Structure prediction request, 126 residues.
Amino acid sequence: MAIVSSSLVEAVIGHAISVHRALGPGLFELVYEQCLEYELDRHGVRFRRQVPLALEYEALRIDCAYRVDLIIEDELLVELKSIDRLAPIHYAQLLTYLKLSGLRQALLINFNVQRLKEGIKSFLAQ
Prediction:
């Protein structure tokens, strides 16, 4: 599986920056999620929201062990936050999501920063 095209990643980041410029930091995650979804839809970018991820442990299958905020064009996983600062647990969470989803690349975007560029982290599956 190839790395997600840089044009798709750039488009998602650009739409997130547009939302952040208009709203600034300090709002609930759900507000940013809905506004980003609006921007994606408005620009014809296909996405799925609140996508359930299954987990298998031995003979047990949990159909909705986790929920991913967005999967863009069935290629890019996007997890949104609006918190004081990202912590190692958020990176671990994203890597788990990548593993369970079978996707190759993800963005972790924290909207609770002064400049959105400081709140964006990109990940590749290992």
About this structure: The radius of gyration is 14 Å. The domain at 6-124 is CATH 3.40.960 (Endonuclease; Chain A). The chain has a mean pLDDT of 94.
